[in-house]
């Protein structure tokens, strides 16, 4: 247990926060610090074909120890952390034999991780938790995933009696700013399929995510003296509000869950002359997704015909539901499920209300379901991870490698 803790602590103490405003890859220079260390470590444990490219994408190979044809599978994680919260001076706290009570993260600032609010904590009574000191995020998202993959590869190298095919490992920068897959060389990675180790609580197994689009609505008005405006003024603000009122009020993030889609207006600004707002469109179902986009077009057309072509709609697809790409190869989900059950982990299969690198990779030709890495409360100071969940995730990786080989015999 200490070994996996040490490895994890080493990674989280290195600040790798990404930055959506940056145009470079990786988006921040500091991501190289961990990237370089990971390369060293992969070499140290005995991985082959260890390589890092100009964008800090790391790949490595564990060669097959069988002389039969076995599918090549991959495991992928990201080493950046969220821009939402600082990752400078991460100072992890280790709580052994958790007693189910409040955890004081920071007495000075009265920051408490409490099961009254985060009831998931209670399922980890008796386990070893790693938390923050209340001033940073932890970075279990997704350094837990990296820890688990490296530890699993090390285990397989040290236990050649466990038979497996060729295993590929990929670590990426900038997942948290939606670019983790952008420079991923799927062809060079050359795996039949892969798993991102980037889910949350123990048991999570995901192969469905949103279809996603973003929209910007720009309205051009005409400012005229309000006292003499009759039939002349075009108030961009009123038209913006007219537009927004047509959107179904119950289909918003705060009113939906499960497989329900939504429109989410997240930014608006305006004057009489010019107004604009931005929204995102989300839906698991492809048809519903298309209908949502069509609704935006219809509203635009309708208001344009009333107010005289003052609205421009910019609609952009962002990513799609990986289900479409994973379903035809559903056995890759079944293998993960079987591996979890073999390690006495109950699979929790549910649609992601967001996207993953795996969804983009799936559309780039690498089907890529997502498996739990074990952490909770990502992207903030209440982030924590039970060490036992990290160990289970490591075991699941090893088991998947074993099962893929067994099924090929
Ligand atoms: Zn993540």
From TrEMBL:
Residues annotated for Zn(2+) 2 binding in this entry: 141, 176, 379
Entry annotated with the keyword Metal-binding: yes
Reaction(s) the record says it catalyses: Release of the N-terminal residue from a tripeptide
UniProt record, GO biological process: peptide catabolic process; proteolysis
Cofactor binding: number and manner: Binds 2 Zn(2+) ions per subunit.
Signal sequence extent: none
CDD domains from the UniProt entry: M20_peptT (cd03892)
NCBIfam families named among the record's database cross-references: peptidase-T, PRK05469.1, PRK13381.1
Family: Belongs to the peptidase M20B family.
Protein name: Peptidase T
